[in-house]
Write a structure and sequence with these properties.
Strands 1, 2, 3, 4, 5 and 6 form a six-stranded parallel beta sheet that branches. Strands 7-8-9 form a three-stranded parallel beta sheet. It has one domain: TIM Barrel (Alpha-Beta Barrel). It starts with a helix and ends with a helix. Helices cover 46% and strands 11% of the residues. Strand 4, helix 6 and strand 5 form a beta-alpha-beta unit. By secondary structure, it is of the alpha/beta class. Helix 1 packs across helix 12 and helix 11 crosses helix 12. It has 13 helices and nine strands. Bound molecules: zinc ion. The site of zinc ion has 6 residues, from loops.
C-alpha cells in the first residue's frame, strides 16, 4: 500500500496535467484561428533565393509557408539581409544592386505560392490576407547598408515593396552606429541617417532599431515622428549583450507607442547551453517586457533561419508553443491578442498615418 499510494497519486496528477495540457492546446488552436498573428523577423529569404548556397553558419530550414500553415501563423516579416561589408563607393554600389536583386528574386519566389501566400504592403493588407485564409509576407531590408548613400534609394525600395528597414547589422554603416563591432563612428545616426529616418517617416515605412547602438536608438526615438520598432531584440537584464534592449530604451520605445519583438535564439535569451532552454525562456523575456512597459508594446520576432530556435521551439510550425506557455502562465485572451499581432498592426497603422501624400 505504501508503494501503491504514490503511484496512484502520480497517475492522477499525470492525467490531470494531461487534461490541462489538452485544454491548453485546444484553446491555443482556437485563439490562433481568431487572432491575427505575426512574427516580426525571419531570415528565410536568403535561403529561398539561394537554395544551393552552403556558406551560412546558422541553422536553416526553420521557415516555410507550409510551416506557417501548420503552426497557425498568419504573417511574418521576411528580411532581405545583407551583412555589413566595405564602405567604398564601389562597395556601396554593389550593396544597392544586391538589395534590388534579392528583393526581386524573393518576390518571384513568393509568386510560386500565390494560391495561398501574398505580399502585404499595408496593415490593412495583413488583416485582409488573413481573412481570405492566406499567409502574408511583409518585406524588410535588414541593413540600410543596401541604401548606399543615396536618399532616393529609400523610395526606390519602398516602390519595390519594402515596408520596414533595420538600420544596420553587425558594424557601423553610412546610416548609423551598430550595437556590435561599433567604432562609435557617428555617435548615433549619421547626417545621412537622419535624412533616412525622415524619408521613412514621409513614406510610411517602419524604422527598425534592432542591431542599433544605444546612441542610434535614442537618436531615432528623438527624430522619428512615427512610432519605431525593435523587430527582434531581447532583454538586456536577462542577457547583457549589446544588441539586447535596456529598461530605459524599452520604456522610451513604449512611450513613443512603439513595438518590441521578443526573440527566440539562445544568443538573446540566456547564458545557459541551448539544450537546456525551452519556450519558457522566450516567454520569460515576454513577461519581463510586459511587466515593465505593458501588454501593448510586445510581440514575437523569432530570428528563425538567422540562428534562433530552442528545444521544443525549433521552427515556425511550433509557434503555438509560445501561446500555450502564455496560457499556462495565466495570460488573458486580450494580452495574447495584443502580443500576437494587434500591437504590431497598431504601430504599422500609426506609421502609415504619418505618411505624407
Ligand atoms: Zn538580425
Amino acid at each position: 500500500m505504501k508503494k501503491i499510494l504514490p503511484l496512484v497519486l502520480l497517475f492522477i496528477s499525470a492525467s490531470v496535467f494531461g487534461q490541462n495540457e489538452a485544454a491548453i492546446a485546444a484553446k491555443a488552436d482556437s485563439l490562433h484561428k481568431v487572432f491575427f498573428t505575426i512574427d516580426t523577423h525571419n531570415d528565410y529569404a536568403i535561403y529561398a533565393c539561394h537554395p544551393d548556397a552552403e556558406d551560412y553558419s546558422v541553422e536553416k530550414g526553420q521557415v516555410s509557408f507550409p510551416m506557417m500553415v501548420e503552426g497557425g501563423l498568419d504573417a511574418s516579416v521576411f528580411a532581405i539581409y545583407m551583412g555589413q561589408a566595405g564602405r567604398s563607393e564601389d562597395s556601396l554600389k554593389l550593396a544597392v544592386e544586391y538589395g534590388v536583386r534579392e528583393v526581386t528574386l524573393f518576390k518571384e519566389f513568393v509568386k510560386q505560392f500565390s494560391d495561398y501566400v501574398e505580399i502585404a504592403y499595408s496593415a490593412d493588407d495583413l488583416l485582409r490576407i488573413k481573412s481570405e485564409g492566406k499567409k502574408a509576407v511583409l518585406l524588410s531590408l535588414e541593413n540600410a547598408y543596401m541604401l548606399g548613400k543615396d536618399i532616393s534609394n529609400v523610395q526606390m525600395f519602398y516602390d519595390l515593396g519594402i515596408r520596414l528597414i533595420t538600420l544596420c547589422h553587425f558594424g557601423d554603416n553610412d546610416v548609423c552606429d551598430s550595437a556590435n563591432g561599433s567604432k562609435d563612428e557617428w555617435g548615433g545616426l549619421s547626417p545621412f541617417g537622419e535624412q533616412v529616418v525622415k524619408e521613412m517617416n514621409r513614406l510610411g515605412m517602419i524604422v527598425d532599431l534592432s542591431h542599433c547602438s544605444r546612441t542610434t536608438v535614442y537618436d531615432c526615438l528623438k527624430l522619428s515622428t512615427a512610432p519605431v520598432v525593435a523587430s527582434h531584440s531581447g532583454v538586456y537584464n536577462y542577457k547583457a549583450i549589446p544588441r539586447n534592449l535596456t529598461d530605459p530604451e524599452m520604456l522610451k520605445i513604449a512611450a513613443k507607442d512603439g513595438y518590441i519583438g521578443l526573440p527566440a535564439g539562445r544568443y538573446f535569451l540566456s547564458h545557459k547551453p541551448k539544450k537546456e532552454l525551452t519556450v519558457a525562456n522566450i516567454v520569460d523575456h515576454v513577461d519581463y517586457v510586459k511587466n515593465l512597459v505593458g501588454k501593448e508594446y510586445i510581440g514575437l520576432g523569432t530570428d528563425f533561419d538567422g540562428g534562433a530556435g530552442v528545444p521544443g521551439f525549433e521552427n515556425m510550425s511550433k509557434v503555438k508553443e509560445v501561446t500555450k506557455e502564455m496560457l499556462r502562465r495565466g495570460y488573458t485572451d486580450e494580452e495574447i491578442e495584443c502580443f500576437w499581432g494587434k500591437n504590431f498592426i497598431r504601430v504599422f497603422r500609426a506609421v502609415e498615418a504619418k505618411k505624407e501624400n
